[in-house]
């Protein structure tokens, strides 16, 4: 999604800052205006630009999630039964391969572009969902927060690289090369994935016997063996599971809004050119990457030293990761006149919200390790529903009023996020649920 969020500032004619004129309009000349106009001429000469309204842009950015809620449950279920290696690898290859064709689809029309992104989103779900079936067999309980957050930080690091390099590519050689280069890198990664990854430590050819023994023994007390049967009715009645589901929806509402619109916000509100927009948009993600890892280390430290109970850690980290970023983002429209304060707020929001990765977002591993693949798929359904709605809603608000639209976007995101937090604090649990301890043959 990040390729589109940075590239769309170059793909669309009307994303230039309101105070900046088109090349044919005469205005008092300043250095920044001349630089922006020169940049605009350069990338227009190298790549096409489209007359997409803010509503259309919101739909395009959201379309990655339109079909995604269909794939997580079957992907997680299949990964849990047959292993995640091939599910994740196939999803990575399909998504990367389709990325190469996004410029062609954009030239063919919005409808084809949206269809391609829907299919691409389904492939990405296979990657996001399947990887947790690997962690349930690889991550010792006392290191689970640390290992999953280190892995999760990779997405933030990737976002940083895409935004940092993407803005430069858009300005120098044209926005299509953002998709060609990163799509090609994704395809190359598949060549490393299949020979190096194993579903469980027992079959891994490279790790030491001591490490293999440690992992297997640490997981021996945990019933994480997959099962064909699913306790559907028990899951439906489980309030702790619903607490996590609601949290996923609410937290990913804000996440998808920020991920999709950070480059647009910086470009339009701060009046940054393509290169600077990419660099500034990347800063919150690199800080978030670091803080995700630190949050995981802190959570495991508090648990291993028995300073706090597991449920206390999950709820505390979730509360910090929701409340403070919500307050910060709601305050953004009031500091838009200061570029430094705006960037500081965006970076702080990303840094603090990363605590959720050691809170509610990993809580499903605690309550039902046996059904990790299926539950991750179910959680991704709620996350992608939020991702399908939130950028579209943001595009609608911004199209109505460019100044107050951003304020409404942040207010709505904060309200959704905080409501999810309240529900999680009331009903969230961290102990293995009864329905996840033994096989329960239940039919709908």
Automatic annotation (TrEMBL):
Xref: PROSITE patterns: MFS
Subcellular localization, as worded in the UniProt entry: Apical cell membrane
UniProt keyword terms in alphabetical order: Cell membrane, Glycoprotein, Ion transport, Membrane, Sodium, Sodium transport, Symport, Transmembrane, Transmembrane helix, Transport
Protein name: Solute carrier family 17 member 4
GO biological process, one term: sodium-dependent phosphate transport
Matches recorded under InterPro entries: MFS, MFS_dom, MFS_Na/Anion_cotransporter, MFS_trans_sf
Transmembrane segments: 147-169, 175-194, 239-259, 279-304, 316-335, 341-365, 377-398, 404-427
Family stated for the protein in its record: Belongs to the major facilitator superfamily. Sodium/anion cotransporter family.
Record GO terms (molecular function): sodium:phosphate symporter activity
Membrane topology: Multi-pass membrane protein
Domain Major facilitator superfamily (MFS) profile: 1-432
